Amino acid sequence: DIRIIGFDMGSGLPTPVDYRDLPYAWKCGFYEMNIAALKSRLSTAELIIGPISATLPTFIAEGSPTAPIGMISFDLDYYSSTAEAFKIFDIGIDSILPRVFCNMDDVIGSGEVFSDYTGARLAISEFNLLGGSRKLSRCHDFAQFAYERWQEKVMVYHDFGHPRYC
């Protein structure tokens, strides 16, 4: 079974916490969605509305009943939201694969002036420093293909301590 779940504020981006959230590029309210219109188009995917800090703990506590997590797309724009979303990796080992492909939308851009000290790139660095046996790394499996910029957004979460890692 494949279970697709989307997490979103619905109301657009929250107020930036500080400079790490790139307030010169992202503003409160950007990307507001029409929740009813989106929900009417969903047939199999689920939509969880609310701040990730409020919705993710409930999801983690429930676990993934149908299939373990095998892919995550992170598109939270902010450092603070991305760091909070990385708590998904605290889910029980039966609910996540030992290696998970991750699309990290906001690690390269087109004018946002991303750096290793702000935004998603900082959240990744901090996660790797504190993650113990759990790390996020760029995927290096594209050497056989012609280089395309989107490849820089593909990362892999590794839990080296996961009982099924090997």
Descriptors for this entry?
166 residues, alpha/beta, four-stranded mixed β-sheet, two-stranded parallel sheet, 6 strands, 22% helix, globular
What does this structure look like?
This protein is an alpha/beta fold and 166 residues long. 22% of the residues lie in helices and 20% in strands. The protein contains four helices and six strands. It has a four-stranded mixed beta sheet with strand order 3-4-6-5. Strands 1-2 form a two-stranded parallel sheet. The longest helix has 12 residues, at 119-130. The two termini are 23 Å apart.
Layout of secondary structure:
Blueprint: E1 5-8, H1 35-41, E2 46-49, H2 52-62, E3 69-74, H3 79-85, E4 96-104, H4 119-130, E5 134-138, E6 154-159
Parallel strand pairs: 1-2, 3-4
Antiparallel strand pairs: 4-6, 5-6
Radius of gyration equals 16 Å
Q: Describe the biggest sheet?
A: 4 strands, mixed
Strand order of the largest sheet: 3-4-6-5
Q: Which percent band covers the strand fraction? A: 15-25%
The count of β-strands is 6
